[in-house]
Amino acid sequence: MPDSITRTRTVAILGAGPVGLAAAAHVLERGLEPVVLEAGPTVGHAVRQWSHVQLFSPWDYNIDQAAGRLLAETGWNKPQPDHYPTGAELLEQYLEPLAMRTRLRDRIRTQSMVTSIGRAGFDKVKSKGREAAPFEIRYQNGRGPEVLRADAVIDATGTWFSPNPAGADGLPALGEREAQDRIAYGMPDVLGRDRARYAGRCVAVLGGGHSAIGTLIDLAKLKDEVPTTEIVWLLRSETPEKSFGGGAADQLAARGALGSAFAALVASGRITSATGFKASRITRDGDKLLVSAAGCPGRHVSVDELVVATGFRPDLDFLREIRLALDPALECPPALAPLIDPNLHSCGTVRPHGARELAQPETGFYFAGMKSYGRAPTFLMLTGYEQVRSIAAELAGDHEAAARVELVLPETGVCNGPAPSLSPDGTLAASGCCPAPAAALPVSGCGAPASPAKFATTPGAAAGPLAFLWSPATAWSIFLGIALVAATLGLAGIRFGAPEDVTGT
Length: 505
Ligand SMILES: Cc1cc2nc3c(=O)[nH]c(=O)nc-3n(C[C@H](O)[C@H](O)[C@H](O)COP(=O)(O)OP(=O)(O)OC[C@H]3O[C@@H](n4cnc5c(N)ncnc54)[C@H](O)[C@@H]3O)c2cc1C
Prior knowledge:
- This protein is of the alpha/beta class.
- It has helices at 3-6, 18-29, 45-49, 59-62, 65-72, 87-101, 195-198, 210-225, 253-268, 337-340, 355-358, 381-395, 399-403, 465-470, 472-488; strands spanning 10-14, 33-37, 108-109, 113-119, 135-140, 145-150, 152-155, 183-185, 202-206, 230-234, 272-274, 279-285, 288-293, 300-303, 305-308, 365-367, 455-456.
- It folds into 2 domains: 10-161 and 312-403, FAD/NAD(P)-binding domain, CATH 3.50.50; 177-310 and 441-499, FAD/NAD(P)-binding domain, CATH 3.50.50.
- It is built from 15 helices and 17 strands.
- Strands 3-2-1-7-16 form a 5-stranded parallel beta sheet, with helices on one face. It has a 5-stranded parallel beta sheet with strand order 8-15-9-10-11, covered by helices on one side.
């Protein structure tokens, strides 16, 4: 352990989301001095963007223990542990009181956007004496450039503000930037704030994760109110089943129910689905937006609005002078990659991890929270709380506590491999991790038209829309869908959340 760490006093925490604030609580509890820099005007600035979304994890999973202890000092009324809050409730009942009423209050600087970090007096190349130098953190707060010096840094800036583009190759689709006025990223509030933009319009949603399906479910509710609303689901993957989640096998019931409700919606035919749709170009056609797919010449969808929900990626630009080691694919700390790589693993059974796995070659610098997962999708707040408990212990020199495992995470019930099956009673089979193959579903493949009004496909594509709608598999699926809707009605009223995007977007 270098001297610089045993002498750590000031810990700069970047981002005042749930994990950044939890980090501040743990650091304070350890007798160190946290300074939180938050880009937004208030804490929880990213959560505020999805405040309309209902979380799939109940309060019990959403409150950090050290934060809870700080709040308890203020006579805080702890929310019901089994209640599922919305993003707005997470802010009002937890993050805002934590930031405004506890001893963290004077340690949070809002409107403070971190723009670069270095090591005072040392460029990236210079090694000798580097570890003893404080971090120099530059930030903008509207009053000119500011500087904070700190002994350690926890980067908990999340990924919300750097969404993946529409292009299937990870690059923006050609024309995507020019069409920004018709494109929303993440989870627009289609039933509330953004209703006027989507009501009665033809809306395509691109993606297969929780953000996409949460938006599609909300659009279906909008269609109930405004029947002229048309909904198109564009999925890169050929197989939609993974988007249906683990059903009853998911240890977070609301997360499983989200997938089940979506499976029912797809089976009902109320949204038009196109699988294997790899967006490559976006062009304007009069009032419409033409979203074209790669690999199938002429295949495109013509819509009024496009919602891109293809996941997120970390912003690494302001870390250019920090010595980082990142997994080449996921852009997360290398030790974490095998635990969360969606190519290998998606059960949600991520082993609890902390300072050791999150450490970087730059001594005293750690990623935490959503950003620590890089491009991987399966992050839970609870994971982040355990990360920052461990990091704070390590910074305080309590290596035994830093290494201790204190968390069991709930499984999603979905692994790579075959997706859960629809059973004849209309529920998603609870077959555990890596369950049985899925039933046929009414989705269009490359070249097979889904709806003549919206899709143009390669000339000579055989299957017509009626054949698509009334095939025996479709009729069976519609029957299953109705049964599934009935099975999930018990959760009616819940506006499901979208934590992270599963693979296959
Ligand atoms: C729609 C949605 C629903 C979710 N539902 C759940 C759920 O039910 N249960 C669950 O456990 N998880 C859920 N998650 C996943 C995850 O737990 C949340 O995203 C959570 O907010 C992550 O917390 P965080 O503190 O790591 O990052 P964020 O909440 O993203 O906070 C990062 C903060 O850093 C700030 N910031 C960014 N850049 C800078 C900068 N350069 N300088 C200073 N500040 C900066 C941002 O403004 C933001 O306030 C959900 C995620 C989404 C998107």
